[in-house]
TrEMBL record:
This is Uncharacterized protein. Residues 36-63 form a coiled coil. The keyword Coiled coil applies. The lineage of its organism: Bacteria, Bacillati, Cyanobacteriota, Cyanophyceae, Oscillatoriophycideae. It comes from the Bacteria. Keywords: Coiled coil, Plasmid. It holds the Pfam family DdrB. InterPro entries: ssDNA-bd_DdrB-like. The keyword Coiled coil applies.
Length: 164
């Protein structure tokens, strides 16, 4: 019983044997070249399939990072102290005397931040984290913002004039 490996080995031996006819050696060389060509073709097909799978995975990763972590929930500042973090799927990691300082949401860790005292938009507390965007730059994601309710500000002169 001869196997494919035995056949290929005998073809190689035939090429190396000086007694074998030139025609037989040439024929065996063409057989070996055809086999190498077929193997390379199969390898190229597998590499193309792998590249396609990698592209799909990278695309999925890029879109899932953006979509998964853009909830940007809103709540009033008065809700901060007693906020039910599990209601948005977040887990409290640490807190201090003023309230929660770090939470985990979908494998990301968000830290407490606050607005400046002189902030025009009013007092606010939010939870954010840094991540890399698809372009490689750092992007900050906001989980939730606690902001005081402010009154509606009147329109200023230029806008009022355009409305008249």
């Amino acid at each position: 019983m001869t196997t494919e490996t035995d056949t290929k080995n005998s073809a190689i031996e035939t090429l190396l044997n000086p007694v074998v006819s030139k025609d037989k050696g040439t024929q065996n060389l063409w057989v070996l070249l055809r086999d190498v060509k077929n193997l390379l073709s199969q390898q190229n097909e597998l590499l193309q399939e792998n590249n396609q799978l990698l592209r799909q995975l990278l695309q999925k990763e890029a879109t899932s990072n953006y979509e998964e972590f853009e909830p940007n929930f809103k709540a009033t500042l008065s809700e901060y102290k007693h906020f039910a973090w599990d209601s948005i799927g977040a887990k409290v990691i640490s807190s201090d005397g003023e309230g929660v300082t770090v939470v985990q949401y979908r494998s990301k860790v968000f830290e407490r931040r606050r607005s400046s005292v002189d902030d025009v938009k009013g007092a606010a507390i939010w939870f954010s984290c840094a991540t890399k965007a698809t372009d490689g730059k750092v992007k900050y994601l906001k989980l939730i913002t606690f902001r005081e309710k402010s009154g509606i500000r009147p329109l200023h002169g230029e806008i009022k004039e355009q409305l008249d």
